[in-house]
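Q: Hi! First time asking for a complex rather than a single chain. Here are the components, and I think there are two in total. Is that enough to go on?
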Amino acid sequence: MAHIKINEDLPGIRCLMDFRPETAVPLNALAEVLLRNDEGLNKGERELIAAYVSSLNDCAFCQSIHGAVAAYYLGEDTVVNVKQKFKEADISNRMKALLSIAGCVQLGGKFVTEKEISFAKNEGASDIEIHDTVLIAAAFCMFNRYVDGLGTFAPDDPEMYEFRAKKIAEETGYANSSPQ
Amino acid sequence: MAHIKINEDLPGIRCLMDFRPETAVPLNALAEVLLRNDEGLNKGERELIAAYVSSLNDCAFCQSIHGAVAAYYLGEDTVVNVKQKFKEADISNRMKALLSIAGCVQLGGKFVTEKEISFAKNEGASDIEIHDTVLIAAAFCMFNRYVDGLGTFAPDDPEMYEFRAKKIAEETGYANSSPQ
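A: Yes, that's all I need. Here is the structure of the assembled complex.
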């Protein structure tokens, strides 16, 4: 049960956005600018970072919905493999290096060292890509804590997440609905 | 030295907002709605939660600037005492209960239990106040990781933070400048 009185028919962050529309606006705007963009990192890569960090934070709702959006772009196998052991997944070395940075950010900002940054740069990651990786990872350390810290409900049904993911990818994005 | 090429004349998050104005807009809008509001929690209490979580995350820049803004409203002693041992600080039991929730959020969303929530409710905290406490704490788990994860610079001079804090409190807020 949620820690505050919210509409529990809405899962995960959606009930919080319904409860507090004032804070939903900048949160959705942040998700839109970070995830719905193909400059540098493409949409699939951005969602993959979000899903990976959410799995490290053990946030069922966020890893399911962002995993489903990542799978829409990159395929289900890639998402499953990245969550299990990204270093062996069928993704570029540049993406492995960026996921390694994201994993450090999940532990705390100071866990990111010159070693991970150099590895990413050597694999061709740009400054903007490194910036966006750090900020996506940091943002999901917020979203995950928000969703779980207020005890929201995460449905088990994978079809619900697939349905929402398709809608986010093809229609609404994040800024135009209570989306995630 | 920062991990990416940024204008290192600007401290902390300000150089990141200068580097990537697209993400600065929703980040500033989020800070504005969470911190510059006297409904439920007042501005000083909101800044105190931000400074406390930033101190737990050992983020020099964020704890200094939000500590300075909190001190503008509540006095320096309160901020110092809260960072050191908030349960003995001269603040209300309601605020102690909310800081206790914020401390759980800093560890991870699932660390918030019914026990902390009941304690806060028994001390008179409303659902909106509990919501805002969780989201402020979660947001600073993002801001702190963003600032430190990209290796930005935090000046030592307390006067710089006092000057900026006064400007934020009396003039600009967060939405109308590259502020923090």
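A: Chain A has a mean pLDDT of 94. Let me know if you'd like any chain examined more closely.
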